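Appendix B. Chain record.
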Amino acid sequence: MTLSFWSPESLGIPSRQNLILWNDIELAYNFVEAHARYSISGDLQGFLLELVRKRWNLACADLYEPPPQIAQVPGSHSMLEALSQPPSGLELGRVDKLALGKGFLNKFKAFAASAAPIQAGGKTGKLYGYGTDGYGTYIPLHLLWPDFRKYWGIYISEAGVLSLAANLYNQLPIHQLSLLPQDGNHPVEKIIQIAYQVILRHQLFHFKIEQWALLFELATGQAYYLPYLEYVYLPTIYATDDNNLEEALANLSVLLSKKILKLEKEVDQNVKGLIESIFLRQQGFNYRNYDLAKGVPPEVQHINREIRYRKVVNYLCNQIIQHEIRPRAPIVPYYLYPPNNNFLRAENLCPIYLVRNLPNEVGVIA
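Structure tokens predicted for this chain:
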């Protein structure tokens, strides 16, 4: 199956807005690619096709036999179709907030009036099948080389933001408030910003993990990220034993986000509790493991959530270096160089795109 992908650049979106980071990444990546024993570059289409297969099997395993060709899979377009057919709107996003305008708030009014509860889909819904990645996605640069400037980054669905914000809004007392005035300080606008940050924080965790792997590839001249995807991430992402720690940690990073905590205090509502109950707990295998109760060493299962997060991030780093689901002892303490070190992996340097007007039936970012 061959697809011609659109790119932000082809739609008039500047693809060199982060020149310092991108030039540094290019220098590092080219050096490793030239000197490593094995290539560190991979195939985006192949990776996405495998994800589509797994998602199809998760949704339809009880109905059909797995098909030999992905083209025969019902609904196999998902991310592939989203990338091959340009949306009618693509805008640069910001890490600090979502730019709101009158048109956006008008769309939100319509969503708030008609939004079905997120939980309504149950085990057949998009949230259960795709987790937070049903509302946004991160495209790794390892799967795009040498054209990473065209596609690399975080893509967040406008419809996803609106759907989550509407569900939060409808559950809070503020749903009785007018959506005006538009001064940036209205509680409703804060709720929209929180919904945006929920999706963004999850994807930023994926960005930081990939950049952490690239750092060690540069230091050692060995491939780590692709073997990790092949031997750890893909085998576990739609297995039922909750062993995919990257997705679990990405969801937990949402609840630990200082940015979301600040917005929650400004709204003066228990929004994080609501995010957990109507959004995170409704997700399927692996994504739902944000309490890190499974797939982790026994000694970290019953400690403070923040400390557990730190220790399991380190365990994930060992998975990446060893590309094994159960890393062998000794577990190396990488705490001095954590993936969430903002000095090394500044959040505002990752390209962020807000994808508008994707049809709701298009899978991964809708």
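Further analysis of this model is presented in Appendix C.
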